[in-house]
């Protein structure tokens, strides 16, 4: 109430002062005395104050009635909330009582079930004891004997079943293997060709033999020194023979000699020029052979250096069988075997195509060609399955995949064809390679050529590294080395060639 009365009184005092000021102003204008003006102002102020007090009381009573109604409403709401809380508490107490009753019932049922199970177990034990007394032996012993008897019978039946399955599987496996191999071999119709170590060059006339030999044998000596072959000029009419165990050197010499015969101008400089051109042509043919083999087999994504190595195998033989043709044939066989067995045909074809890649460098690197080939394939980022098939195709490594076994089978099928290989040629080539390797191991040696079926070795030395006396001593050292490390019939002639050339240009 006071919060309403104070502002009302303040307003009344302000109004009183305002009215008194107005009354004084009017009275002074009308000529009244100051006492009269003050008394009139006092009367006006009292009237205004009285009216303000009445209005303040009225407003205070109205506010008090409103506050009383609000308080009464809040009391009613609080009473209702307390009733609801009491009702909820009663409900919770009832639920707790029900849960406690249910828990007690569950415990009683559990105890009853436990007692029933215990009684049943006791009855079962009593019945078992009575049965054991009646039968005259223990149940555990009877159970063990029965299990042992059943186990023996099951093992015997399983052994009989396994034996029958193995016999049928072996018979079926042999039958299917024979059928698959017969089908594959029948589909491979390869030529039976064995390479030789000589090439016969036809001549237009016997007069050409004199040009080939040259004055005092100058041309033939130059040709043999440059090409590293043995040139045989005998009584055979209109023909000369190029002989060497290295097929690449033999092919280069054959092409060079054919060009010289066709041109007719034969002298040391033309011989060297023709030899260089023939060498470039053979290197190009090696690349072409590698690309042809890839297309023939259907293998893609090979490294260029790997293609060059594969092409070089076209001039290499294994027991008389051309190695590149052997790789192509093995790849076809492996692909057909994989197709028959439902294996990865492309993987088997690729592994068989690369399985003898080590033979391209086996004369330069020591070790098995299978392991060398696996290292080459690994260096050129071939898949691990391909590398494993290469290294396992001669059982240097135990085969662990079906592809490795298929490569072994394809290699054997390709090599086992009648007439495909010849043992004597391979041993002959290896012996000549051994001769060249031993002679090439000495310091100052530039090139080594084994000629006349290994009865002669020509060693070309660096003239800047050895003098004439050093060349003679080198010939003796090579001869002693061959005597100590090799076994051979007859004798081997060692020729050390030291040639010094001085060259200048006139301008």
Key descriptive features of the protein:
3-stranded mixed β-sheet, 3-stranded antiparallel β-sheet, 7% strand, 8 strands, 507 residues, mainly alpha, Hypothetical protein af1432
Q: How would you characterize this protein structure?
A:
This protein is mainly alpha-helical. It has 4 domains: 2-107; 137-187; 298-421, Hypothetical protein af1432 (Orthogonal Bundle), CATH 1.10.3210; 424-507, Alpha-Beta Plaits, CATH 3.30.70.1350. The chain is 69% helix and 7% strand. It is built from 15 helices and 8 strands. A 3-stranded antiparallel sheet has the order 1-3-2, with helices on one face. A 3-stranded mixed sheet has the order 6-7-8, with helices on one face. A hairpin with a 2-residue loop joins strand 4 (317-318) and strand 5 (321-322). The longest helix is centred in the N-terminal third of the chain and has 102 residues, at 34-135. The radius of gyration is 59 Å and the shape is elongated.
């Amino acid at each position: 109430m006071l919060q309403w009365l104070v502002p009302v009184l303040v307003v009344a005092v302000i109004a009183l002062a305002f009215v008194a000021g107005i009354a004084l102003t009017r009275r002074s204008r009308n000529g009244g005395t100051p006492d009269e003006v003050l008394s009139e102002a006092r009367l006006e102020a009292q009237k205004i104050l009285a009216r303000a007090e009445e209005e303040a009381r009225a407003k205070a009573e109205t506010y008090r009635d409103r506050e009383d109604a609000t308080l009464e409403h809040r009391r009613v709401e609080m009473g209702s909330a307390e009733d609801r809380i009491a009702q909820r508490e009663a409900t919770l107490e009832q639920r707790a009582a029900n849960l406690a009753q249910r828990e007690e019932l569950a415990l009683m049922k559990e105890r009853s079930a436990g007692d029933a199970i215990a009684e049943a177990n006791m009855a079962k034990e009593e019945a078992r004891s009575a049965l054991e007394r009646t039968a005259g032996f223990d149940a555990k012993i009877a159970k063990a004997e029965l299990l042992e008897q059943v186990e023996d019978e099951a093992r015997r039946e399983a052994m009989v079943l396994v034996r029958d399955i193995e016999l049928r599987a072996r018979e079926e496996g042999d039958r299917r293997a024979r059928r698959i191999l017969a089908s594959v071999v029948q589909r491979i119709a390869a030529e039976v060709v064995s390479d030789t170590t000589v090439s016969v060059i036809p001549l237009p006339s016997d007069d050409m033999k004199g040009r080939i030999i040259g004055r005092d044998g100058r041309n033939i000596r130059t040709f043999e020194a440059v090409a590293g072959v043995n040139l045989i000029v005998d009584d055979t009419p209109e023909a000369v023979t190029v002989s060497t165990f290295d097929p690449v050197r033999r092919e280069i010499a054959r092409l060079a000699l054919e060009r010289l015969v066709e041109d007719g101008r034969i002298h040391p400089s033309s011989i060297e020029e023709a030899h260089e051109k023939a060498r470039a042509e053979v290197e190009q043919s090696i690349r072409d052979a590698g690309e042809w083999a890839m297309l023939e087999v259907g293998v893609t994504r090979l490294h260029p250096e790997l293609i060059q190595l594969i092409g070089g195998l076209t001039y290499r033989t294994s027991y008389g069988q051309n190695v590149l043709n052997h790789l192509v044939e093995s790849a076809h066989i492996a692909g057909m075997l994989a197709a028959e067995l439902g294996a990865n045909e492309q993987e088997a074809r690729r592994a068989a195509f690369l399985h003898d890649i080590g033979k391209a460098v086996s004369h330069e690197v020591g070790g098995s060609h299978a392991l060398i080939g696996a290292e080459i394939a690994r260096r050129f980022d071939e898949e691990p399955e391909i590398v494993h098939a290469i290294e396992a195709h001669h059982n240097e490594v135990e085969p662990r995949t079906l592809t490795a076994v298929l490569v072994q089978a394809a290699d054997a099928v390709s090599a086992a064809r009648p007439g495909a290989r010849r043992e004597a040629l391979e041993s002959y080539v290896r012996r000549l390679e051994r001769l060249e390797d031993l002679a090439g191991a000495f310091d100052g040696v530039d090139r080594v050529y084994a000629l006349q079926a290994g009865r002669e070795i020509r060693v070309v030395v660096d003239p800047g590294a050895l003098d004439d006396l050093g060349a003679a001593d080198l010939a003796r050292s090579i001869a002693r080395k061959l005597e100590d490390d090799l076994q051979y019939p007859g004798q081997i002639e060692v020729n050390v060639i030291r040639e010094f050339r001085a060259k200048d240009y006139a301008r």
